Amino acid sequence: MTAFRTTESPYKSDNTASNMCGFTLMNNQVGAVIATVLGRLDNVTVTHLPSMIRVDGRGRFDTVYADIDEEAGEEEGWFDAAEFEENMSTHYGRMVHLDDRTIMFANPEDAAEYIDFDLQPVT
User: Between 20 and 30 A from 31 (CA), which of 5, 74, 107, 119?
Assistant: First the structure.
């Protein structure tokens, strides 16, 4: 009798931390402006796809609204959390909206002070 072996699946479960966070944007004028600004960050990779734009970052990255205003040639205050949410379709990692920026965190511990995440174990 011959014993058969199967190869290990490349789709196996892996629960190790990736240290990655990001979101997808609509592939429109505003999404392109956001992607242009974020693409200048050292820890961010932008991937343009036919129907969306992927923004993936390592650790933490900030989408500073004033930088988007400037790149778009708009008055200060044009870009805000509502405009960001309108152009973003999905995200992974922790997202925190502040008055002047949206911060993406790969690890919830790094966002603890913003999201009231208690790092103390429950006894």
Answer: 107
